[in-house]
Structures are given as C-alpha cells and as structure tokens.
Amino acid sequence: xxxxxxxxxxxxxxxxxxxxxxxxxxxxxxxxxxxxxxxxxxxxxxxxxxxxxxxxxxxxxxxxxxxxxxxxxxxxxxxxxxxxxxxxxxxxxxxxxxxxxxxxxxxxxxxxxxxxxxxxxxxxxxxxxxxxxxxxxxxxxxxxxxxxxxxxxxxxxxxxxxxxxxxxxxxxxxxxxxxxxxxxxxxxxxxxxxxxxxxxxxxxxxxxxxxxxxxxxxxxxxxxxxxxxxxxxxxxxxxxxxxxxxxxxxxxxxxxxxxxxxxxxxxxxxxxxxxxxxxxxxxxxxxxxxxxxxxxxxxxxxxxxxxxxxxxxxxxxxxxxxxxxxxxxxxxxxxxxxxxxxxxxxxxxxxxxxxxxxxxxxxxxxxxxxxxxxxxxxxxxxxxxxxxxxxxxxxxxxxxxxxxxxxxxxxxxxxxxxxxxxxxxxxxxxxxxxxxxxxxxxxxxxxxxxxxxxxxxxxxxxxxxxxxxxxxxxxxxxxxxxxxxxxxx
RNA sequence: CGGGGCGUGGCGCAGCUUGGCAGCGCGCCUGCUUUGGGAGCAGGAGGUCCCGGGUUCAAAUCCCGGCGCCCCGACCA
Length: 489
Prior knowledge:
- By secondary structure, this protein is of the alpha+beta class.
- It has three domains: 3-276, BirA Bifunctional Protein, domain 2 (2-Layer Sandwich), CATH 3.30.930.10; 293-401, Anticodon-binding domain (Rossmann fold); 406-486, Translation Initiation Factor IF3 (2-Layer Sandwich).
- 36% of the residues lie in helices and 26% in strands.
- An eleven-stranded mixed beta sheet has the order 3-7-8-14-11-10-9-22-23-21-20, sandwiched between helices. Strands 16-15-17-18-19 form a five-stranded mixed beta sheet, with helices on both faces.
- Helix 2 (44-63) crosses helix 6.
- It starts with 16 loop residues before the first helix and ends with a strand.
- It binds one RNA strand through residues 1, 5-9, 16, 18-19, 22, 33, 35, 37, 89-90, 92-93, 114, 143, 145, 147-149, 151, 154-155, 159, 161, 208, 216, 227-231, 263-267, 296-301, 304, 329, 331-339, 341, 350, 352-355, 362, 445, 489.
C-alpha cells in the first residue's frame, strides 16, 4: 500500500517542497500564523524542541565559563548609529518605537535586531582592568528584523535566539574564543541535532556587518539548498573603539578590548525539519525530540482495562525517558500511529491483547519504520539503546546525504550545469576576488557558503581534498584553496 | 522590492463566468456500536461570504477603492 495514503494533509516533497514544509510545521503543530505579518506563534510542541536545543547548548556555554544575563529590548537610536558599518547593515530592517505613555519620545528606540550596541555600552562600564577580562556573557532572547519575505522558523519578523558576547585582552584570545564557540556549535548540532554541518569561514561579502571575521556552520537541506545554522564572529576592536571599552593592561597602558559574538536561532528548528523530515512529516532526533516515545494501547472493549493497566505499568517503568501514554479514547490506534509519525516521535510502542499474551511490546522506529518485539520487562533497557541507534542512524543519513550531494567542479560550464540540475554543495576553486564572487551570485544565485576549516572532518572533506589546486570556477585564475558554494535559504 | 495565488462555519474547498433559499468534505457536540495503519450509523450545533462604497427590486456573485495572508524570486540569522 502507498505510504502517502496515510498522510493526506502533507504535500509530498517531490510535488512542492515549500508546501511540504508549510504542511509539516502547521500539521505537526510546531507553529501557527499570528495576526501580525511575518510573525508566528511557536506552539508547545515546537517550543519543546527549542527548549531541548537550549538544553543542549546552555550547559556547553556554562562549561566554557559563560554566564547568562539579560539586556534590554530597546536600544537608543544614537547607540545604533555609533558603529557606521554595523548600522548600515541593519537599519533597513530595524523596527522603531517612537511613542510611549501617550507621548512622542525624545529619542526613538530601536527594537534590538541584535544587541551589540547595548551590550557594548554596558561592557564599557564594567571593564576597567585586565583583571576584569575576559567577560563572557550570553543571553537567550527575542530579536526583531523587519523582513520583507518571511517563512516559518527560517525567517520571521521576530525570532528567538541566543547571543553570546565576550571581551578579551588580546586578539589571539578573541580568535580562540570565536573558534571555540564555532566548535561548540559544530559538536552540538552534530551530536544532538544530528545535522552534518560544515564549519568554515565567511567571505568578506558574507560576513557580519561590523565584524573582523565571521565563521559559520552550514548545513544542506534535503532540497539541496544550504542553510546557515550558526555563526561566530571575531569582532576585533571595532565596537570597543566606538563604545570606548578600555582596560588598563599589565604593562600600564590603556587598550581596547577584543570582542566576539556568536549565535544560533529558532531557525535551527527549520533545519531539523528540512534535514530529517520525510513525506510523512517530521522525523526528530531523539536527543532533541520533546517525546522519545509514545505508547499506543490497542484496547478492544472487552480487554480495555486489562490493556490500559498494562500500558500504565509500562509507562511508569519508563520514567526518566520522555514517554507519553496516548490513552485517548476518541481516536483509533491507526489514527494515533499516523498522528505521532507526522509529529516525528522517534519510537512508537504498541501494546495490545496479542502482545499481552506474549508479555511483549512492539517498538517501531520512526526513522526507518523497522519494528521489533521486546519483552515487557525489557523495554526500559531496550528503549535507550534504540534511541541511541536512531540518533546515530539519523546523523549518518544526514552525513551521507550531504556527502553524496556535494559535487566537485572544475570550470564555469560544469559549475552552472551542476547548480541548475542538481543543486547541493558545490566545491571548487575561488580566486578570492569579490567581483568574481558577485558575478557567480548574479549569474547562478549561488553564494560562497564558507571557506571550510582545514583539518576538520566534514561531509565535504573528500571533495575538498580532490579539489586542491583547482582554479577559480568563474575566472579560471589561481585559487588559494577550494570553497563551498550553494544556493542558500 | 518585483512576480504569482488566495480571502465563503474551526480547517480545506465549491458556488462567482450568466445576480435570485449559503452548500460540500473533514473537524466539533450527543447517543449507540467499535479499536493491530486516519472506524460505522443516527441525530445536532456552528456563517458580519476580508472591509468600505456603488449598481440593482435583489450582491458571496457585477463595478470602484482599500486591507490582509500565503508562495516564489532579489536582500538578510
């Protein structure tokens, strides 16, 4: 029987990828459209994913010495204007508050598009001596960017994120911090979100407005388009100069601090959907899934109490894992199977009269559809193993897909053909010239996603090795090293 | 900012061309029968047809104006 018959509500990816995405986020109840353009409600199930992402990242931030804090939503216009490059970069998408308490404000307040301006202002007050360094803070908050075209999770007017901000005594320390946080993103996205990300450096053109250098982790979605999944910036001393963040060093001289900032957002939820989802809906990696498993009792009238009692006992024995017993009477087992599959729960546990006779339960994997019979008293031992297997398999699948979708190109003709016919990551040479980069973008829609970090294994490693020494894909000139191109979200 | 699509019970849509009782499917409520891949039957509730104006005996339908949402491209997490 055709698989799609079960999920009428979801458009298949092959028919219309965008519609599939919208169907998944709405039907799985991750979000709903709010009455304000470009804004969405993150519903409990979607927010549960975000909480799991926070739960994966926050301890890693703490373990590396960072502390959480909270800075105001409103930023005085004059603060934003101080750093010209930064301001120019953001002003088109800033929302302003000009009235408050029924009166016109003396100075308009920007609703933060990011908090560099506010946080740097505070840093200037807090930092006096080399003994005050490093300053390592992070905040979980919302930001607003007035986008013209929005998409649930991927680009919304208001979104949730985390922004880390640090000050250091030396350039080397700031660079090390920038790289450390990129590494943390890379590890966390790979281990917990099962995303096969490629870490690398951004080109001048693609870097953060006001940064010395920007690093990012890039992931490939199942439609062959890339998504920037996290960024880490070495801000140099640009903001320190503008906001007068000075410290008296050991040598008795006043110096500007060296800064970093880094962030990931609810956009990661979009990445999870587009990397792991299939035509039946969401597929969530166990470490991030709000629910590890759902127990679906199959309880004909006559055996109802017997089955439910056993199901409750099984549920109680799985305390410590995130398991829900779906004992709703208003839906049939088949309905529940489809519903929880659509919502991406990693494991379904079926328990019916036939299973009770055999003192077993049926465990079914969401990612592969495989089912296995497990003795009732063995489920609490088997489930964690199975979840680990699923987590691993999903990562492998994402890695293999990304690796398979990476093409090596030698010249311009090949480059255009690959982008038009296959998409995916394209590895090739780049001479380093911004005009070449610009032409490539104008003519193909593809951008340089990153200059991959050397010595870090990633799904594009093989292609990079083969591409060493290849000339620029556009002009044919000498290229210092291969880069990764793609069309991107 | 360009291109396309759409606004009709909670959701998805038909009706509009050619003006004349506001309909269908799903969902919802009640009852009974059901339960191993989206159960069946019976009864029932639910509508400013996006908004404003105009034409007309009569407007969901025709005309004018506005608003909103979604999708796709260019710019950005």
